[in-house]
Amino acid sequence: MCDGKNHNLELIQRFPVGVDGEERAIRWCSDCGGVVVDLDVDGRAVGPGDVMKMRFPGVFYQYIELKKLHSEAAAGAKYPKDWNKYGSNG
After folding, report:
1. Residue 13: beta bridge partners?
2. How many CB atoms lie within 10 A of CB 35?
3. DSSP assignment, residue 78?
């Protein structure tokens, strides 16, 4: 399981883009659904995220917001600061 920083990346597709063995590699994290496009040379990632930084599906951002909301409540916040964003006051 990834922790949001160290992803379990699986190679989806690799295609050549230039000389000297340069390739674009599309990788997907099977745990969180994040996708990244890297620059590979000779099968090795030399520019992780150089082509496209890691992007996540919308549900991942909702999970992060809920996690923040729960941590605020656990810390004793009477009303989490973004409560109205969720469409209810309780």
Report:
1. 26
2. 16
3. S
- Is residue 51 within 8 Å of residue 39, measured between CB atoms? yes
pLDDT of residue 90: 46
Length of the chain: 90
Q: How far apart are CA 11 and CA 2, in angstroms?
A: 16
**Element spanning 19, H or E:** none
> Exposed e or buried b for every residue in 13-23, given b needs 16+ CB within 10 A?
eeeeeeeeeeb
Tell me the whole-structure pTM to 2 decimals.
0.59
Whether the CA torsion 80, 81, 84, 87 is positive or negative: it is negative
CA–CA dist 88, 83 (Å, integer): 7
Average pLDDT of every residue of the chain: 77
